[in-house]
Design a protein that fits this description.
Elements lengths: L1 H11 L6 H6 L2 H10 L2 H5 L3 H4 L2 E4 L4 E4 L7 E7 L4 H18 L3 E7 L17 H12 L3 E5 H7 L11 E3 L2 H10 L3 E3 L2
Parallel strand pairs: 3-4, 3-7, 4-5, 5-6
Antiparallel strand pairs: 1-2
């Protein structure tokens, strides 16, 4: 029944999909192609289905639906005070969001001198542009982890951190544990 419906819709919309393509592709993939060409209206689906967003795959953009789990995971080490370093790391985080949109889970593990980007009142200087970039990235779903050992050495509590920062016991252990969960590791 579904195969016949998909065949009829693809013909109506003048899509070039034959029986073999319909058989070899998943229902979701076929529906994604239909939605990309207006097929969602032909299927009578609601606005929620039609509002699926696109992300990059290795070859072409593929439809993703709200709530789909990400396929990519990365943790960035962030442990230096240098503004150029801050720009490079956070720029890379932004580029990953640009490439994978909501198909990636990103953690920035902050410890040592790098933890100051997460402070309400940093002890070390943090450029205003870096502060804005951190806030923007956090708003896009990037997770920022603060090393509890570094916080202890600075006599900080969670109240000293920006509201989105998450305290972890040991920053380096956090990186290791995330790698054990298949997060790619990036350090400068």
């Amino acid at each position: 029944m579904m195969k016949q419906l998909l065949k009829k819709i693809t013909k109506t919309l003048s899509l070039s999909m034959d029986d073999e393509e319909i058989n070899s592709e998943s229902r979701r993939s076929v529906l994604a192609k239909l939605m990309a060409t207006g097929g969602a209206v032909a299927l009578g689906t609601g606005a929620a289905t039609a509002s699926a967003h696109k992300v990059n795959t290795s070859e072409e953009k593929e439809e993703r639906f709200p709530g789909d789990p990400p396929e990519h995971f990365i943790v960035y080490q962030f442990n230096k005070e240098d503004p150029g370093y801050h720009q490079h790391v956070l720029g890379s985080v932004g580029a990953m969001i640009g490439k994978y949109e909501d198909n990636i889970d990103i953690v920035v593990a902050c410890f040592a001198q790098g933890i100051h980007i997460l402070a309400k009142n940093p002890v070390r200087p943090v450029d205003d542009a870096i502060k804005e970039k951190v806030l923007s990235l956090a708003g896009q779903g990037v997770k920022f982890h603060a090393c509890g050992r570094t916080m202890k050495s600075l006599k900080w509590t969670e109240k000293d951190l920006l509201p989105f920062a998450q305290r972890v016991e040991v920053g380096v252990a956090d990186i290791m544990e995330l790698q054990e969960q298949n997060y790619a590791y990036m350090a400068w």
